Amino acid sequence: MQDLNKLWKIFNEKFADTGLIKGAFSAPGRVNLIGEHTDYNEGFVLPMAIEKKIIMLGQLRNDRLVQVFDLGYKVEAKFSLDDLTPIKKDKWANYLMGVIDEIQKAGYILQGANIIFRSDIPQKAGLSSSAALEVVTALTMSELNSLKIEPVKMARLCQQAENNFVGVACGIMDQYISVLGKKGCALMIDCRSNKYELVPFTDKNYKIVICNSKVERGLVDSKYNQRRKECKQATEFFADHLERKISALRDVTINDLDRFGTKLPDPIFRRARHIITENNRVLTSMGALKNNDFAAFGQLMVESHQSLRDDYEVSCPELDLLVDLALNEEGILGARMTGAGFGGCTINLTKKAYLEHFIEVISEKYKKKAGIIPEIYVSSPTAGAKMIKEGNKNG
Ligand code: GLA
Q: Which CATH superfamily is domain 206-379 in?
């Protein structure tokens, strides 16, 4: 907790003590093991929270101001709780403002606060640094203001902040896992009911290795929103052609696709096929993991990547290269891109005995072929957002 003491020291140098409640909080990034782009189709996802996180320290103020300092980029922002509109400069502040706006719109009463935060989640790498910033802001503001916001509601408010304030029509997965992650487990989330099932992911023989392609997810927002529109188009088609009620692609089966799909124009047909097969893969992978059948799980990861690459078209040459290189290595049971795509990271299901060898070899080969030095992280599943208790003593 020495680190936390240091952070409190910086906090105290930055802000005069208001004498009001203070606290320290954290929220993690995530990788998604399988179930990509299914969340906004009311389908299934299987993410886990990772060891990279954002730590936020805050203290209430007696007025309506929020003053924030980002320790990583050494930038600060100041805004009033009564004047929350997205800003063009200092865009990072929009994540905090958006969350605060949604909390207030939901009817909660907030007081101003002084805040500092520090992140070790790489940005634009598809590891949900923005969801973690939203979630840690929501937790900080709700705890300091003594609000009781249910975890799923908190995730929803953060998702709405990203939809309304940042302009990305994302689903709920990233915010959900950052709030509700559990140590040692992935969460199988049903994105229609918003209920989850814990999936233990702690076999000592296997590890998830994350390879950061270092290709930033350029243009992701517009392409992401475009995929959402394509899914909506496919849903409307099936709602018109099937007798039963279809409210999302979650309701469409492979048989429906075989029967009517050819009437769908390309690429809508392929977008729908990805979502339908990906939902099936998540459900199948639950059985594989319950049986400790990591070989079967790895195969599903491989199929997921192919579908994202060919049908959903959200991969990129560097991610494909990382996956191909990995699958040629011994001890790798599966590899796929994770997150929205268009850059970012792959995840690799690795036999522990091959861990070090794999990290060395993939770095070398990727550097040689792509001319980029990747970053590699190994993470076990961790807990979701929480208060860092020791923080209160050190304030
Ligand atoms: C981004 C979004 C999520 C999800 C993934 C793709 O991370 O924020 O809601 O749609 O892409 O699975």
A: GHMP kinase, C-terminal domain (3.30.70.890)
